[in-house]
Amino acid sequence: MQQNEAVIIDAVRSPFGRRAGALREQRPDTLLADTLQALLTRTGAPVECVGDVLAGCVSQAGEQGGNIARQAALLAGLPEQVPGVSMNRMCGSSQYAIHAAAQAVAAGDMPFAIACGVESMTRVPMFTDLTLGRHEFAGFDNLHPSLLKRFAIPHQVESAERIAEQWGLSRHDLDSYAMLSHQRAQAAKVAAKHTELVPRTGLDKEGQSLILDYDEGIRAHIDPERMAAMQPVFRRPEQGGQITAANASQMSDGAAAVLIGQRAIAQDYGMRPQARFRARVVTGSDPILQLTGIIPATQQALAKAGLSLQDMDWIEVNEAFASVALCFIREFSPDMDKFNPWGGAIAHGHPLGATGAGLMAKMLAGLRDTNGQFGLQVMCIGHGMATATIIERLNP
């Protein structure tokens, strides 16, 4: 056993709600605080030994401003000496929070740390102006002119279109993959696979209280003809547009949290660590295609771990767009039974800052369910970056 070896004790997540859906009245700070409480209750972690709370959050404004990590930690009842930091690596924010928490624990800086993430895309819409703190579309208009001149960084939807072109993906390919994501997510939902989920109280369309214990965006039935008739969201059809709302990730509300600790100390407290880290990677990539960093990130993570993709029992690739998942499939030819087995963000949603920790919680549950050993999680990030993590399940 390595000295100060960082291990994952456990991970939980809220159900992911549709934008303006069941979690629409849930403040993100409360949503994260309740998720932290659920993690602490499940693990029995000694709260006085938690050295930091690291939270991924992309739109840090309004109810998500003012360092939501610290606010959520206090709301969750953690001792006031437990600090918090909010970080933004765009879609990879809470996966990077996991990396940073593991590094702090492995360095011996603290015995335990919580990596987490939250995003309410209902209450703090994407591209909220971070300076004004109000719901004003900022987007790519605020990028530095020199960057735009040098790289001509496009909107992510345009990058997804270019990926489809470069890998020769048809609209049928994209829509078929999106249907598969929903089918797999629905099957996992019906089979009650998601042991990482912590139910939330929400509201139905009429405003009546309900218990949300599933990801709200999953569609049990999809009409292929209706899907094929949907218009592209960025390029016009005559321009070859193929990316639609149906073959892209859903905007969502959600939170997730992962407890990381030193293995020996965790065992002294009677905890049963779930997994250890075999590789942690963050990398830059082409800022124009911008979503293809998952390819070099995967290659680097496998090399660091001394493993092959065939060694992976679970492969979790964030489905920002169907073209992103399909370019990975074209490049690596993974065993499709092990690739996003319970569907992905096209079906269950993508609450930006929460997704990285949410996918880790989901992957851990999947490895437990399948008695798997190794898992790979990889996420594309705007402006050309990616995060990748390989974990090894302990005590299988």
From TrEMBL:
Q: Which Gene3D superfamilies does the UniProt entry name for this protein?
A: 3.40.47.10
User: According to the lineage, what is the superkingdom?
Assistant: Bacteria
Q: Which keywords are on file for this protein?
A: Acyltransferase, Transferase
In terms of InterPro entries, this protein maps to: Thiolase (IPR002155), Thiolase-like (IPR016039), Thiolase_C (IPR020617), Thiolase_CS (IPR020613), Thiolase_N (IPR020616)
* Domain Thiolase N-terminal: start-end pairs: 7-262
Outline the extent of the Thiolase C-terminal domain: 272-393
NCBIfam families on file: AcCoA-C-Actrans
State the family it belongs to: Belongs to the thiolase-like superfamily. Thiolase family.
PANTHER family, alphabetized: ACETYL-COA C-ACYLTRANSFERASE, BLR7806 PROTEIN
Q: What is this protein called?
A: Thiolase family protein
